Amino acid sequence: MPVTERDLPDLVIGDDGLARPRWAAVDPLLRDYYDTEWGMPVRDERGLFERLSLEAFQSGLSWVTILRKREAFRAAFAGFDPDAVAAFDEHDVARLMTDSGIVRNHSKVEATIANARATVALRADGGLGDLVWSFRPHETPRPRTFAEVPTTSPESVALAKELKRRGFAFVGPTTCFALMEAVGLVDTHLVGSHRRGSSGVWS
């Protein structure tokens, strides 16, 4: 029988001699994402809007499902250009709801458009990058096992509250913590992983 993620320990030594968490040890797409992107700093508006949108679409689904559809999402949402998405209307919503390349969830599609408009509005007050990064904590977790990796934090609760106040949707504390992990505000790479401390944000 083939080895599945559930069969593996929390930290796995790959055929290249590098240690990765089991979620990044089996699927080549996840492995490449883990090795090159996850946890690296993202500060630009479009990059953060894309990650925030994908994290919202991921809610209730596996991340690899979203990752496999990422290019289709980019095509459907104008490369996650906030200005372009903010101009979407009911015809665009109808178009998106017939696009089999993405996750066709009406609430999440509407939320992405609303979030684009909120992102544009934030420019008058420093922008999305400044807002998100203002919630960087003073210290980061140092998990040795998956059981030690948190799913929320006081900062993610506060970030979710502020984003909602600013007109964003589908931005609960868990989604915001996942965003913080993905864009480098916290480092939840397991201790011993070859990526631990690689972002330059945390030593």
TrEMBL record:
Known EC number: 3.2.2.20
Gene Ontology terms, MF aspect: DNA-3-methyladenine glycosylase activity; metal ion binding
Taxonomy, superkingdom: Bacteria
GO BP annotations, alphabetical order: base-excision repair
Residues involved in Zn(2+) binding: 189
UniProt cross-references to Pfam families, sorted A to Z: Adenine_glyco
InterPro entries: Adenine_glyco, DNA-3mA_glycosylase, DNA_glycosylase, Tag
UniProt KW Zinc keyword: yes
Keyword terms: Glycosidase, Hydrolase, Metal-binding, Zinc
Top EC category: hydrolase
Entry keyword annotation includes Metal-binding: yes
Protein name according to UniProt: DNA-3-methyladenine glycosylase I
